[in-house]
Amino acid sequence: MGARRLGRVRRLVVKVGSGLVTAPGAGVVPERVGALAGEIASVREGRHVVLVTSGAIATGTARLGLGERPRSIPDKQAAAAVGQSALMWQYEAAFGRHGIPVGQVLLTAQDIGDRARYLNAKNTLLALLRFGVLPIVNENDTVAVEEIKVGDNDNLSALVASLLDADLLVLLTDVDGLYTDDPGVNARARKLETVEAVTEEIARLARDRADGVSVGGMATKLQAARKAAASGVPMVIANGREPAVLRRLLAGEPVGTYFAPRADRLAARKRWIAFAVPPQGRLTVDAGALAALTQRGKSLLPSGVVEVEGHFSSGEVVAVVGGSGRREFARGVVNFDADELRKIRGVKTKEIEARLGYKSFDEVIHRDNLVIL
Questions:
Q1: Could you tell me which of 263, 308, 292 has the C-alpha nearest to residue 370?
Q2: CA-to-CA distance for 336 and 64, rounded, in angstroms?
Q3: Is the pLDDT assigned to residue 4 strictly greater than 90?
Q4: What single string gives the DSSP state of each residue in 63-114?
Q5: Least enclosed by CB within 10 Å: which of 74, 152, 168, 300?
Q6: 38 near 192, Cβ under 8 Å?
Q7: What is the maximum alpha-carbon separation in the chain?
Q8: CA 223/CA 230 separation, integer angstroms
Q9: Region label for 357, one of left (φ > 0), alpha (ψ between -120 and 50) or beta (otherwise)
Q10: Chain mean pLDDT for the chain
């Protein structure tokens, strides 16, 4: 396995799981938040650190005296609203003891999916760092509907790391890293020190053998690793209960599981296309278009489009699928809306005007706006 390529970490994103800062029935635990603040304070000298935290819903659930985590969306959102302020109050107090000011940044999928709002979020975070503030980021669970689910902050932290061109992303959790099997069941399971790429074989390690469900939220952590790697950001999954875990990790100790970044990192705009925006539709392409896009670096033309699914406008991101399993292999910003595409699919470029009565573009997706996944 390859060595860890950390270099000099000047910009660090740390994500902390709910289990590390809260306790069932009690909500946020001041001692745990205090320990985390001390750990981050110890590595902040000469570095910019951004903290992505879970725990708002768990804290609100306890504050509202609910016996269990709420199931309905409005109840979860109410719990998040109550819990978020309590959680931030504890962070404010804990980091205040180290003389570190904090700032709350709540994001939704829409903030990240809209290019202008995405860049605005980046500028806000950079301004906070410039002022010496430690940004504390969370999903805005009081308004986000689809995104209230366990592990969502894993993906959010990878998007924040990509947004800021971080030097390292650390996911602190309650396990020591990625194992070859569930160590609680299989005594021979071993921890992987390094993962060069999140292959399908690696992804299978995160799924329970019996029901295919993610073990310990590990599936979302591997999704985060893929996003980070494509952005050129190394990532580590480590046990947040280990003493001095961040200091040891940054000193080069082989703590946790290290995920190597891709050498051919995607440009910032292509990262946004690939990961920040949920596709609004799907285009199925023929074998010729599949080869042209993946092997010859071409744009997608109408002649290669076989099927159009969904309702989308020009300028939105769509998934591109093809091959025998019709798997998604690319994403891109489309030049035509869904209805226009249904009229011109399969036709030559010179026939576009005859079909539509006008021609604004030759390409369905220009190469510059296309990402091969």
A1: 292
A2: 49
A3: no
A4: HTT-SS---SHHHHHHHHHHHHHHHHHHHHHHHHTTT--EEEEEE-HHHHHS
A5: 74
A6: no
A7: 70
A8: 11
A9: left
A10: 89
Answer yes or no: are the C-beta atoms of 207 and 213 closer than 8 Å: yes
Residues forming a β-bridge with 44: none
How far does CA 372 lie from the centroid of its chain? 18
Both structure tokens of 195: 């993962």
- Using only C-alpha atoms, the chain has a radius of gyration, in whole angstroms, of 22
Q: Pick left, alpha or beta for residue 257 (phi over 0 → left; psi -120 to 50 → alpha; otherwise beta).
A: beta
Instruction: State the CB neighbour count (10 A cutoff) for residue 316.
Output: 17
pLDDT score recorded for residue 207: 65
Question: The whole model's pTM is what?
Answer: 0.83
Q: Which long-range contacts (CB under 8 A, 24 or more apart) does 196-203 make?
A: 196/1, 196/2, 196/260, 197/229, 197/260, 197/262, 198/222, 198/225, 198/226, 198/229, 198/259, 202/178
Which fold, 279-372? 2.30.130
CATH 3.40.1160.10 fits 11-267, yes or no: yes
The angle, 0 to 180 degrees and rounded to 10, between the axes of the packed helices 73-96 and 56-63 is 100
Which of 192-201, 240-249, 270-279, 291-300 is the least confident region?
A: 270-279
Domain-by-domain residue ranges, the chain? Answer: 11-267, 279-372
Place of tokens 């299989």: 186
Distance CA 218, CA 214 (A): 6
